[in-house]
Protein: Xanthine dehydrogenase family protein molybdopterin-binding subunit
Organism: Streptomyces toxytricini
Amino acid sequence: MTFTTTTAAGGAADTPGAAPGPGAEQAAPAVPRGIGASVPAADARAKTEGTFPYAADLWAEGLLWAAVLRSPHAHARILSVDTSAAERMPGVRAVVTHADVPGATTHGRRIADRPVFAHDVVRHHGEPIAAVAADHPDTARLAAAAITVEYELLEAVTDPEQAFAAPPLHPDGNLIRHIPLRYGDPEATGEVVVEGLYRIGRQDPAPIGAEAGLAVPRPDGGVEIYTASTDPHLDRDLAAACFGLEPDRVRIVVTGVPGATADREDAAFQLPLGLLALRTGCPVKLAATREESFLGHTHRHPTLLRYRHHADAEGRLVKVEAQILMDAGAYADSSAESLAAAVAFACGPYVVPHAFVEGWAVRTNNPPSGHVRGEGAMQVCAAYEGQMDKLAAALGMDGAELRLRNVLATGDLLPTGQTVTCPAPVAELLRAVRDSELPPLPKDTPEEEWLLPGGPEGAGEPGAVRRGVGYGVGMVHMLGAEGTDEVSTATVKVVDGVATVICAAVDTGQGFATLARQIVQEVLGVEEVATAPVDTDQPPAGPAAHGRHTWVSGGAVERAAKMVRTQLLQPMAHKLGMSTELLQVKDGRITSYDGAFSTTVAEAMAGKELWATAQCRPHPTEPLDGDGQGDAFVGLAFCAIRAVVDVDIELGTVRVVELAVAQDVGCVLNPRQLEARIEAGVTQGVGAALTENLRSVGGLVRHPDLTGYALPTSLDAPTVRIVKLVEERDVVAPFGAKAASAVPVVTTPAAVASAVRAATGRPVNRLPIRPSAAVAAANS
C-alpha cells in the first residue's frame, strides 16, 4: 500500500521511509520517535510471538470455572427454573439466578432495561438465565445444561415495522426513541425526484478472541474483575450497582484486548462472573465459546431506510426526505445515540437546503444491537449514496460530478442547523479518488483466472464478467454527542529520565498506547516511555469509541507532559534569566533561543522525579431538540472512496479489485499505524458490503459461528490504495488530528454497492449484496 499526504497549504509532505536524495550523507538509521514517526507498537513483538497475555490466559490459585445457561428461545415466558439437579452434581460450587442478585437486577450502558438474568420473560435468543461455578469447565457446562427451565412460548416480534403495533415486549414499551428532523421548507420540490428503499443487515463485530474474564474476591467483601473492558469505569459502576456494593469495592483490571470493533465487553458477560466469585469466595474464570460470543454481545443495527431526493436540472440537491427504522433488538443499549447519528447524517456530506427526516429505534425479539464502528452513519451512507447514483442516472450525469456539485465545505450548515467549523475538504477528497489512475483490466487467460470473481477454480467464463467503478463519500462524528461530558485524565511521571503515562484509556487496537509514547517523546524529548496497565484505581478516561482517545486522552497526555516540561525548564530558565518559552526541547536536547545554552534531556532529567496530572475536556455539545436541531457534535471526519469491482453476472460473484481512499486526517501522527487503521476499516466495510450478515429466523440466530458467519479473510481483502491524506489540522483537537478508522468503515459499503450498480445496472439496495442482484442482470 502506498499513500501521499498534503498539508493545509496543498504542498506534498515527505513520504516516510523515502530514499535520500543524490549527494545525501548515509547516516545510521535513527530510532523513530515523536509525532509524525512510525513508532512501532510496544506490544508488537509479544503479540507476534504469542506471549502477550489475554484474558483467556489468566489463572489463579483455587480457580473455579463458570458456565452460563442461555435461552434457546427468542421470546418466552419463564414458568419455573429448577437448579436442584445442577446443585447436586459433584464439583459444582454455586448456581446463581435472578433471585441471587443482591443489588440492581437490571443494567444498561444508557438505559437500565436489561436483566442480569431473565426471570419472567426471555426477550432474545441467548439471553442469560442462570450461571454455574464448578471445579472443571466440563462440569460447569454439564451443570448448566442440567438446569431445568419451563417455558411458555410467546410470539416473537422480529419485524421492526410490526413493533409499533405489537404488544409491549418490555415494560418501557417497544419504542426506544423517535427523532423528527425538520429543516427548511416542507413544500420545496425539485425538477428531478428519485426514491429508494434500502435494507442494511446485522453485522457482528466478530472479535478475534471470544469474551473471557477472571473474577477474584477481595478480603473486604469486594471483587476484582480481570477482563478486556473498553470502558472500565462504566463497567465498574454497573457491576457495583448489581452486586450491591460501593464502586470503590469493585475493581476492573483491563487485560489484553484481542480486537475490538465495538464495545469489546458486555456487562451481561461480566456480571455473572463477579456474582459467582462473591458467592463462592473463590476466583472464577469464564471463557465464552464462539457461539456464546455471537449470542451475547451486541451487533450493528439492522436498518430499513426509505428515501426521496429532489434535485434541480443541474443536479443540485433541493430537498431530502427520509424515514429510518433501526432494529435495536431486545434492549436499548446505545440505540438512542446510533439513531441520532443516523438522522443527523441522513443527507450525507452534501449541502441540502431542505431536509425532513423521521427516525425510530424500536425493540424486537431479534439479537441485541449496539455500538459498532460508524453506527448509524454507515447505514445512512449506503442509502444516500444509492440515491446519488439514482440521481446521476436520472440526470444522465457522471456520479462523481454530481457529488462534487453538492459537497459540504467548512462554514456550511448540517440539516441539524449546526455549522461545520472543522476542516471539511470533501471536494478535495473526491477529486483525488476520481482522478487517480484506474487498475488494469484482468487478462482472459487460464493463468489469470484467479483474478476473476469466485477465486481459483471457482470463476465462471471471463465473458460473463463486468467491471464497475463507483463512489462513496462518508462522514462520522468524533467523540460523544448530544451533551455527553467528554473528559479524560492522564498523569505523566518522569523518574531519572524514564517516563510513564498513567491513563485509563484502553488501547483496543487503535494504537493509543503507542500514541501516548509519541506525545511524551515529542513534548519532553525523552526516549524511554512506558504506559501503565489500565484499571479503575486510575481516574476515568471514558470509552474507547468514536476515536475519542486520540483526541481526549491524547489531549490529556499532552497537557500533562507540557506541565512536566515546564517543571523541568523553569529552574534552567531562572538561572539563564529568560522565560521557559525561550528554551526549546527537540531531538533529545534543550537549547536556548540564541544557542548560548544547550544540554541533553538525559542530563537535565538525571536524578529528578517530576510528574503532573491534567484533564482534557472538549467544548460541550447539546441534545437535538424536538425538530432535530442543535449543535450535537464536537467534530467531523470525512472520507471518499472509489471502488473498482468485477462482477460475474451469471454466478452473481463479486471481486473487489481495488479501493482508492482519500481521507482527511487532520494530522498524521503515526504514518504506519494510520495506514493500518484505514486498511482495517476498509476491510471491515467490505465484509458489511458483501458477506457479513448474522442471520436469524424467528429471532433464532442461524449458524452462530465463524463457519456460518462469513468474515473476509486475507484472500478476500482487496487492494487498498491510499491516494491522499489531507492534513488540514482541526485547531481544537490535540495536534489537529482526527479519528481515522470509523469513516472508511462507513464509506466502503456504499462505494462497493455503487460499483456493483455500475457493473450490473441493477439498483443494489440491500447490504450485504446478494448474488441475485447481479445474476438478475444477465437476464435483463
Notes: The two ends are 38 Å apart (CA to CA).
